[in-house]
Amino acid sequence: MFVVHIVASFFSKLQEDPTKKVDRFLYAMRLHDDQLSDISARFQAEMKKGLSAESNAAATLKMLPTHVRSTPDGSEKGEFLALDLGGSRFKVLQVKVGEAMGINKGGVEMVEKTYAVPKELHLGRGTELFDHVAESLKDFLHEKNISLEKKHPLAFTFSFPCEQSSLNQGLLLNWTKNFRAGGLQGKDVVQALRGAIDRIGGMDVEVLAMVNDTVATMMTCGFDDQQCEVGLIIGTGTNACYMEELRHIDLVEGDEGRMCVNTELGAFGDDGGLKDYITEFDRDLDAASNNPGKQILEKMVGGMYLGELVRLVVLKMAKLGLLFKGHVSNALRTKGTVTTEHVAAMEEYKNGLNNTRDLLTDLDLIPTFDDCVAVQHVSTIVSFRSSNLVSAGLAAILTRIKQNRNLRTLRITVGVDGTVYKMHPQYPNRLHKVVRRLLPECHVRFVLSDSGSSKGAALVSAVAQRLASRRRQVDGMLSLFRLSQEQLRLVKTRMRTGLEAGLKSKGSSAVKMLPSFVYRTPDGTEHGKYLALHLGETNFRASLVKFKGLQHNSRLYNKIYTIPLEMKQGSGEELFDYIAQCVGDFLDYMGMKKARLPAGFTFSFPCEHTAVDKGTLMSWNKGFKATDCEGHDVVSMLREAIRRRNEFDLDVAAVVNDTVATMMSCAYEDPRCEIGLIVGTGCNVCYMEELKNIEKNEQKTGERGEGTPEGEEEKDDGGREREGTEGHAGILKMCINTEWGGLGDDGSLDDIITPYDSEVDQNSLNPAKQRFEKLTSGMYLGEVVRQVLLDLTRRGLLFRGQVSEALKTPGIFRSNYLSQIESDRLALLQVRTILQQLGLGSSCNDSIIVKEVCGAVSRRAAQLCGAGMAAVVDKIRENRGLDHLNITVGVDGTLYKLHPHFSKIMHQTVIELAPQCNVNFLLSEDGSGKGAALITAVGCRLRQELNSK
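The structure assignment produced for this chain is given below.
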């Protein structure tokens, strides 16, 4: 019985909330404030130990004097070169600081170039590494036409632990960040640089100063904020510096004034000071590192290690059967397959779970939803511990400064740099909150350093005139995408005109206003089993939907099939044969091949309906070009393909647009839903229009509609009833598929179309068609952004004017990049990752401009959708003679769902342009599947009602 109890307990734990399972597994990583205060106290004791001449040798915090005796005061001036070495790349700069151009006044001129440090130099000889640096310096001087005859002072940012006896001398204590260049440890790196410059020759350079990157960060931020007296790096590695009272620094003579101390905090715990808080995963990571037993704190908090910690935890949980049903892939066993970038992506606010699933799939795992939740929570705990530990160390530094100055409260600024702090979506807020919670008596301001390690040695921040000029030009280009309220009102008016014209029987309209022959929305009584088929932009999906009548709920089973490109652009017969094959496979999968089910077909392309089960394809879009389909009834083509297959039979009772299906799906949840909106790869709207306004419907006679019994004739309006319309009491509306993406095909939007939009249109599969859709939908926004970036680069305003081959490639800048780039607190990480994929090395300012371009393009798209929606809701309100309209819009589409700001901007535009309408937006859940089934169910119910009369 005891064994049974143990087994039962084990399985009950397996089925519990996945976050609780992780919390219990990683309880040792979840640090409480009392523990953080304890760590902070230990850190303070180690700082004091490191400052003392008697105990410095045994201290893990070396508290290295930098010989920087003050932060900038605004009087800095001069012209000099700067080198920044600290990772796989290094920069060479020419810096000019103007006289009397300091804080809040000044001007800085800077020319820079980034050079790679080949991996073989990381582990080679130190002389080879510094020869490469010197050669790059000489190359920079040649490239920038800087005189080789003139003597140039040089400042050197060297981001590794050094003991300095003066500002221009530093002995390398040890390498970090996977550098192991031989022959330099214990040697003066400034002298090594001077020797390399002499060996390369042809330059007259005097090395005046060497600083750590953390010090450089503090100095850069101090150039703008004189209260900045702490520098913090949280990136590949981690470190902090601060201005210490000189009287406390035993290793330096003198008692007056202050000096910046480089704590080298990453080594805290090397003596066992963190043994109470180190887990088995920390021990495993340390044992497999290049420097076991060293940099213990850095291995718990640094960006080089966070991803690996997550991997080790996930691997252990999988081995114990707590994840992935015990399956462990080779990729999961491989060191380095989970990076800190993955950690940041997994903790993204909206896309975190999707990013987690994508990562696990890339690791050859098959995660369940609970697995994704659990792994995301592992990432959260690991990164949260990192920010907590850094907060404890920073709290110790701030407490020491406050005590040194005998202050009751401390007001201070911390200059911060590092990829983890910059790019992780939650890290800064966590760090700030914990520091302020641990030190409520301190008023701490955090300032993000702008490339501090590059500029700090020279106390500069930017080339003011060049950046100001670039700003003006970029603003001028992006102003093309900024729409005034007057322009938006004009778009609304033009959309309204298009809606009205499209309903008429005579004349043409760019807005097609296609009748769907869907007369009612669901009322909750729908019941039975229905098959739903959906042909969309990239996939075909088959679903079985079960409705349970007044219980007002449903169950859905589905399977997704990718549509190969050759099917999209081959023959229509091949495309529909493939669809029939997929349907047969799904019925086999569900064990229902012999059942003849009513089916709804969601067909996400413009069709002209003559009945609910008859739809003639007007034109392909979204990348489809299958031949012999346009002008043909898609239901007939599907039925013929099923007959050719001769394996099963279906009653295809309805063909609908995905927008209509979305409306129906949301109407099942909210009876006020009478509008459907898709903002994804394409963009479209449908709504319930008054039958009396649909003049073009009166021209369609002799066709059987969804409510007309077979054998009965329709009648025209000369006393003859039409199918299922005015002749039947209670049927007063029909859903209209607007196909509003065609607005502007007649030139009505030419005044807001930019040259970039025209370029995208000309290179599309359907030039001069779907102009509104090309301004608003996900299929085109990324390409619009690419065209803008290309123009900016060609003008020399981005990427130093260097156009990569990738940037020239149409379609390379995907629209989902916009959502990633504009995600709050994730922008720079996403920009740099994306630009790296495009073969572009970007500066911080480049990244900001790319984000601004994405924001301008997506904001315009959202505003245009809002203007169009305002036209629709105002038309419905006026149709019904109402002073005020309350209505719900069912919405689907990846752009609307995933973009961090699109929905908010669109909603606000609707409020501003349609103030007499209260519009609620309801996100559709599987609208295309459930919606098609609901249309079929409503049609069957309506037919039964009419036949019973």
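Interim note for the steering committee: Residues 1-14, 100-105, 460-468, 701-727 have pLDDT under 50 and may be disordered. The two ends are 67 Å apart (CA to CA).
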